[in-house]
Amino acid sequence: MTPTLVRHHTYAASSAPVDPGTRARDWAAIQERVLAPLHEAVFDRLEVGAGTRMLSLSCGSGLALLAAASRGARVTGVDTDPERLALARERLGSAGRAEDSGTWAEGSGRRARDTEPARRARLVEGPPSAAATTGAPPYNLLTAFHPIGCAAGDSEGLAPALAEAVPLAVRGATVVLTGWGPPERCATAPVLRVAARLAEPARPARPGGWRPALRDDLEEVAARAGLKPDGSGRVSCPFAYADVDSAVRGLLSTGLFDAAERATGRSRVEKEVAEALLPHRRPDGTVWMPNVFRYLVCVTK
User: Fold this and answer.
1) What contacts 148, CB < 8 A, 6 or more positions away?
2) Residues 6+ apart with CB under 8 A from 182
3) Which residues does the annotated region (Disordered) include (predicted)?
4) Torsion angle of alpha carbons 204, 210, 211, 216, nearest 10°?
5) Is a pLDDT exceeding 90 seen at residue 206?
6) Would you say 68 and 75 are in contact if contact means Cβ atoms under 8 Å apart?
7) Alpha-carbon dihedral 207, 213, 216, 220, rounded to 10 degrees
8) What is the CA radius of gyration of the chain?
9) Integer Cα distance of 107 and 244 in angstroms
10) CA 27 – CA 60 distance, rounded (Å)
């Protein structure tokens, strides 16, 4: 069977031919969890809790939503990737098609610990504007936890997404943007350079292809979106994997290697990424790469 063409959920479009179910599962099981320290640092700083009404842009398979809901927040996640949203529903225990009804999902709650987060979660397939609420207070926290600053076009795509989301929030709502830290602070950067080298480097960068993070990526997006910066921070997010194979699968699930796969084929990308990971392999076979990510706290005007 010919693999389905799937548009990866990052703010930059991507169209590498992959099996969408496999990619989504690799993201949820291997890659998404490496960003958990970033989620927790932001939620700690903002004291996310029962009074929080959060809209998460490009929510993926819902790990950040689960963390916020577990703190008592009401959360809505919006994404264009149906495979990842399906995994988010499983993770949150959401039932039915809350994305169509515009109401909060009550959830099946087969286990007691799943019930409460599910009651506070709503998942929406589509653009940010599709997350408009009916019969519920507007959002007071908007998050963009898929880090920008490492894929060509991702910062350009985030500003329009924010333009759709901001009208759904109260005036003075908090907005959190996240991005990769300086390349010299990210051990994964040399591995990601494989993507740039293989993806026809003589041509202009294509959407979704890797490029080095820039110092003011987040600030420039905030300025274009009309947001007022109100603080920032850096968080250590080591990329830890059980073995090289898991690391390759996790990294390729990000979409940063899509252009390289189009140019050279998946097997070559897998081989070269595995070779680039060897310096980060520990004696027990695990892979460990320390990285730093940034977040910028803003408020709507």
Assistant:
1) 11, 154, 155, 158, 177, 178, 179, 180, 217, 218, 221
2) 213, 215, 292
3) 90-135
4) 120
5) no
6) yes
7) 10
8) 18
9) 37
10) 9
Answer yes or no: are the C-beta atoms of 177 and 232 closer than 8 Å: no
- State the CB neighbour count (10 A cutoff) for residue 296: 22
Residue with tokens 């490029």: 211
pTM here is 0.84
DSSP secondary structure, 177-242, as one string:
EEEE--GGG-TTHHHHHHHHHHS-TTSPPPTT-B----TTHHHHHHHHTTEEEEEEEEEE--EEES
CATH of 20-300, one of 3.30.428.70, 3.40.640.10, 3.40.50.150, 3.40.50.300: 3.40.50.150
Cβ 237 vs Cβ 171: under 8 Å: no
The pLDDT tens digits for 19-65 are 889 999 999 999 999 999 999 999 999 999 999 999 999 999 999 99
Q: Give pLDDT tens digits for 83-117.
A: 999 999 999 985 333 443 344 443 333 333 444 66
**CB burial readout 239-278, b (16+ within 10 A) else e:** bbbeebebbbbbbbbbbbbbbbbbbbebeebbebbbebbe
DSSP string covering 49-115:
STT-EEEEET-TTSHHHHHHHHTT-EEEEEES-HHHHHHHHHHHT--S-HHHHTS-B----SSHHHH
Examine the pLDDT at 137 and tell me if it is beyond 50: yes
CA of 169: how far to CAs of 131, 155, 232, 295, in Å? 11, 21, 21, 20
Comparing CA positions, the residue from 196, 80, 213 lying closest to residue 148 is: 213
- Contacts of residue 113, Cβ cutoff 8 Å, sequence gap at least 6: none
